[in-house]
Design brief:
Order of helices and strands: EHEHEHEHEHEHEHEHEHEHEHEEHHHH
Structural class: alpha/beta
Radius of gyration: 22 Å
Strand order of the largest sheet: 3-2-1-4-5-6-7
Strand content: 5-15%
Largest sheet: 7 strands, parallel
Shape: globular
Number of strands: 13
Number of helices: 15
Distance between the termini: 26 Å
């Protein structure tokens, strides 16, 4: 019986991973409990074979955190929990102390870098390094953990996020889905798409991409292409209006489109000539980069945080690459990479796409993430969850 603790089950990386591990546990006959305050993905946990235990674990109130120690202790003892896995800081404090009180192994996952400004924030963050095993979602994240807590080094396990091969499979996306999306976005027939998929917030670098698009357009690189900014702007209407203004100021009204949130991301990546990430702060993984490559779409990412770990660049393997790096915030370099990607012949792009799919298949598949996480549990429990997971048929995993 494994207890995962996550504040809420709304859309996000930690929430999705919670569901995916609940699915893996269910597949091997283990009990998957999830303590959470609720959220839109609660039903997905149930569908995956897990069980929700509703507790006020999203609260950062010290009084609620203290009360949750008793609640989680009762849950651990009452349901025969063998291991506790925390995925966020506030509930991790309650989970850590409850695990220690009951003598159960404690695992944490760093889903973010957790900024540290001052000693109080550092102390608050420190619980994420208190796991008997500490899962980092990239080598970059592991380096952040080691810098802050050197004594944790031997307990860190790097496990990359996983891409669901059943969803991100070119063969599973019909041509009509791609054409419908192009029509919905108003993309002219035959035009190539430069896709930027991210929520509209300044740290995702949309300003830099618009500036790079202006430069590429001046050089003629966008003559037969459009740039699609796919992402919503919850609570950031002013930023969205600013971006619209930038597009107009650069005379890119027919070249750059803000299309809002896209629900058909596999089709979007299949429609794109290249997918671009322009984050201005370090990412701890790079989900869109991995998903795009799974769909055979080359990528352009900044040489920042964990994003370089997601691709094979020409600097690493000339002639056998899956995407390009550019110096962070370097608009000229970004424009140059966009120009190169758009100039690829169909055969050149297809060759890169095949390499990209193979790269993701070998490094970032969902089953790999699930099996590796179960192996961490096995280290602490002396169980054989990972071995049992390997014996589950691909059909059962939805492959």
């Amino acid at each position: 019986t494994i207890l995962q603790v996550v504040p809420r089950l709304d859309a996000g990386g930690s929430e999705l991973a919670t569901v995916e591990i609940a699915q893996a546990l269910s597949r091997v006959g283990a009990r998957a409990l999830v303590a959470t305050e609720g959220g839109g993905m609660v039903e997905e946990v149930a569908f995956a074979g897990g069980e929700i235990v509703t507790l006020p674990v999203a609260s950062k109130s010290p009084f609620t955190i203290l009360a949750n120690i008793g609640r989680l202790t009762n849950l651990i003892e009452g349901r025969g929990v063998d291991l506790v896995h925390a995925r966020s800081r506030a509930p991790a404090w309650s989970a850590f102390l409850a695990a220690r009180r009951t003598g159960k192994p404690f695992v944490t996952t760093y889903h973010g870098a957790y900024g540290e400004v001052g000693p109080f924030k550092a102390a608050y963050n420190s619980v994420m390094a208190k796991g008997d095993r500490v899962i980092a979602n990239s080598r970059y994240t592991a380096s952040v953990i080691e810098a802050r807590a050197p004594r944790v080094k031997d307990r860190i396990r790097v496990i990359y996020r996983g891409v669901d091969r059943s969803a991100f499979d070119p063969a599973a996306v019909g041509a009509s889905a791609v054409e419908n999306l192009r029509a919905q976005w108003g993309v002219p027939p035959g035009a190539k798409i430069v896709l930027h998929a991210a929520r509209l917030t300044s740290i995702k670098g949309q300003r830099d991409l618009i500036a790079a698009a202006a430069r590429a357009n001046q050089e003629g690189a966008l003559d037969d292409a459009v740039v699609i900014l796919a992402g919503d702007a919850p609570g950031r209407d002013a930023y969205r209006e600013e971006l619209i203004g930038l597009v107009a100021r650069h005379g890119l009204g027919d070249k750059v489109r803000l299309v809002g949130h896209c629900r058909e991301m596999p089709a979007a990546y299949l429609a794109a000539q290249v997918a671009v990430t322009t984050s201005t702060v370090p990412e701890t993984f790079g989900r869109t980069s991995a998903e795009a490559q799974a769909m055979g779409c080359p990528v352009i990412v900044p040489d920042l945080g964990a994003l370089p770990e997601t691709i094979v660049s020409p600097e690493q393997s000339e002639g056998q690459f899956t995407g390009w790096l550019f110096p962070p915030r370097d608009v000229a370099a970004l424009a140059s990479r966009i120009g190169r990607a758009l100039a690829l012949s169909p055969s050149e792009r297809d060759a890169i796409g095949l390499l990209a799919r193979a790269h993701v298949a070998g490094k970032f598949m969902l089953e790999r993430m699930q099996g590796s996480t179960l192996a961490v549990y096995d280290e602490l429990l002396g169980s054989d969850l990972a071995e049992r997971f390997k014996r589950v048929s691909p059909a059962e995993l939805g492959a």
